[in-house]
Amino acid sequence: MIVVGLTGGIGAGKSTVSKLLAERGAAIVDADQIARDLQSPGSPVLNQMAERFGAQIVHEDGSLDRAAVAAIVFSDKAALDDLNGIVHPAMQAEIQRQIDLNAGTDRVVVLDFPLLGENPRKGLAATIVVDIPYELAVERVVEYRGMDEDDAQNRINSQISREERLARATYVVDNSGTFDSLAAQVDELWSSVVELPHVASAEPGAR
Predict the structure, then answer these.
(1) pTM of the predicted model, to two decimals?
(2) Over the stretch 14-59, which tens digit does the pLDDT of each residue have?
(3) Where does the chain show beta strands of DSSP type E?
């Protein structure tokens, strides 16, 4: 298998690129979906989160109040670090399990992980960064996620900088233009990715 990472800041359009790669045959390991599954009602991860942040982050039906968590952590780096310390160990184990389902095949496995820049992994053949300018990211988050401008900026600023993310990129996909332009870039990217070295497994942990 060929294992690559896919990342990008909020509003960059990473999910769209992930879908385009899946259409071309990639197996997608979706870190956001894994996180949601791990935070299901009654789960050990959700219980630990409630102990740290209080019962107000859990709805009456036992589900996670994501807006309440976001309000706490995205303006408080220490709280964000605590959240990551609870969620990430379980996430890394499940990510590894899903990647290894493709071991011994010729599949391209795309690890779709918004926090890949903050949490690098060994064993990746390449890192793909979906990039847009800061001002456009703010505009898209306000438009598509219903946040006000201050909240959008706080959310973006809680992530690593655009410059840091780009410095770690093997490939950069510019999503500041049209969908057709984006799809053409993904076609070119796919042609390169399928030629990357195969590995038996992508090991967890920092480079």
Answers:
(1) 0.84
(2) 999 999 999 999 999 999 999 999 999 999 999 999 999 999 999 9
(3) 2-8, 27-30, 108-112, 126-131, 171-174
